[in-house]
Amino acid sequence: MPKGNEAQTYAIEDEDLGLIATAEVTLAGKHADEVISEKDLPLKYIGYSHCFRKEAGAYGKYSKGMYRVHQFTKAEMFIYCTPEESDKYHQHILEMEEKIYQGLGLPYRVLEMCTGDLGAMAARKYDIEAWMPGRGEYGEVTSTSNCTDYQARNLNIKFKKKDGKSEFVHMLNGTAIATSRTPLAILENYQNEDGSVTIPEVLRKWMGKEKISI
């Protein structure tokens, strides 16, 4: 898990507990100190949780409002797999994230992050940024990371190979959707001149209408 300033977590006073910044924390610890059979891999999970972040050091006009908040809800994807398949499943998570934003009809771009922006855990990371008309530039809405065996070593999670030998699993994560930034991108990209908001077609059967009027 992230450590030091990178963690951005709230600690509970007089307790050895904290508020999770992502469901990744819970999903990563699900198989702590276990040895998983190779035939059971990959293990694929999705967690839906409230998330809490200090966001310390986040300043500027784009850090205000809904874009950078201290509490939000999101759906997080998580995969345990063999080292040989982690690159494949990293692309799989990215494809699922792209499918969501394509379905919503939002303009977006994919960035592969440089080494200096990876943080301690990730060996490779992609960010998806949606176009934000209100700020006139792209803003991050989701990401996916291949942490290889970094988390597995910390949590002692291994898999038993067919030859009987044990090896650390690879662990990957990616946000499916978060309830702060994605609605912001929808509102800004689908707002009309009269102030109303056209609902993306894929959401209309749940919303029961085509437009939200103010």
From TrEMBL:
EC number: 6.1.1.11
A family per Pfam: tRNA-synt_2b
Xref: Gene3D superfamilies: Bira Bifunctional Protein, Domain 2
GO molecular function: ATP binding; serine-tRNA ligase activity
GO CC term (a single one): cytoplasm
SUPFAM superfamilies: Class II aaRS and biotin synthetases
Entry keywords, A to Z: Aminoacyl-tRNA synthetase, ATP-binding, Ligase, Nucleotide-binding, Protein biosynthesis
InterPro entries: aa-tRNA-synt_IIb, aa-tRNA-synth_II, aa-tRNA-synth_II/BPL/LPL, Ser-tRNA-ligase_type_1
Sequence ranges assigned to domain Aminoacyl-transfer RNA synthetases class-II family profile in this UniProt record: 14-200
Group of enzyme by EC: ligase
GO biological process: seryl-tRNA aminoacylation
UniProt name for this protein: Serine--tRNA ligase
